[in-house]
Amino acid sequence: MGANLSALGSEVDGGISPSRPRFDDIPESCVASVLIHLDPPEICSLARLNRAFRGASSADFIWEGKLPTNYRAIVDKVLDEPKMGNLRKKEIYAKLCAHIPFDSGTKEIWLDKGTGGVCLSISSKALTITGINDRRYWNHISTEQSRFNTVAYLKQIWWLEVDGELEFPFPAGTYSIFFRLMLGKPGKRIGRCVCNPDQIHGWNIKPVKFELTASDGQRSSSQCYLDNLGSWVCYHAGDFVVKDPEKWTRISFSMAQIDCTHTKGGLSLDSVVVCPSSLGKFN
């Protein structure tokens, strides 16, 4: 018996050892049952570990829960791709995380990569701006500082009023809306983005008022003084709640400073942004 134990010991020492489970031997189904509880960036990071994690990370049932519940309606609205039905859920998620232009390029939608929350941006060209066609008051300026490559620049005006509307199949949740503004005229000098403050005036006299209304009667308003010289700031206009993702939600929003006792000018208007309130202030 001692000889047998000695022989067994020598086999182990010689490199012939009983088989042991390896990390690669974990079944994909077990890996997937863990990945389903993680956020998309964590899933993609673990997919690089080995073949089992890579295979499990592509499972449709994992990404079905990461996509918006009404993602099919969103896809129909913004993507003109008849073969979308052949894509895996992970591929659909990746496509929606890219900034997708729609409505003739005046709007963009994307999913927040970490949460899958639906975000939208609306160009200044999709807004109704009082006096926008009179070049004494407003100009459209091409700039790399805007995702739409153009902003509306206010030189001077007595009556400031900007209105917009959006109808979209939002998933259920609470959303915030922001106006992305900058005091100053965007430009470029020696390859660097700069801001010309020469025409800024009138914003310290009266606050700008922001308003939001939703199709189900929700209303919100706020007001503040603009003081963001040379930097883009997203001013909060209000929040709205979507309860039924099967119904399209229509929102109207505005910003105004209509005190005609003084002029105001030197304001750049880039866009209006809508995003889940859980993401915090959009920048």
Structure in words:
This protein is an alpha+beta fold. It has a domain at 118-279: Jelly Rolls (Sandwich), CATH 2.60.120. The protein is built from seven helices and 15 strands. The protein has helices spanning 2-13, 28-35, 40-46, 51-56, 60-64, 71-78, 89-97; strands at residues 100-102, 107-111, 118-123, 128-129, 138-142, 150-154, 160-168, 173-183, 185-189, 192-196, 208-214, 219-224, 233-242, 249-257, 267-276. Strands 1, 2, 3, 5, 6, 8, 13 and 15 form an eight-stranded antiparallel beta sheet that branches. Strands 4-7-14-11-12 form a five-stranded antiparallel beta sheet, with no helix packed on it. Strand 5 (138-142) and strand 6 form a beta hairpin. The longest helix has 12 residues, at 2-13. The radius of gyration is 27 Å and the shape is elongated.
CATH topology of the domain at 118-279: Jelly Rolls
Number-wise, the strands total 15
Largest sheet descriptor? 8 strands, antiparallel
CATH H-level superfamily of the domain at 118-279: Galactose-binding domain-like
Q: Give the termini separation.
A: 75 Å
Which blocks of ≥5 consecutive residues have pLDDT under 50?
1-14
- Percent of sequence in beta strands: 25-35%
CATH architecture of the domain at 118-279: Sandwich
Specify the helix fraction band: 10-25%
Give Rg in angstroms.
27 Å
| Average residue-wise pLDDT | 88
**Order of SSEs:** HHHHHHHEEEEEEEEEEEEEEE
Structural class: alpha+beta
- The best one-word shape is elongated
Instruction: Give the CATH class of the domain at 118-279.
Output: Mainly Beta
Number of helices: 7
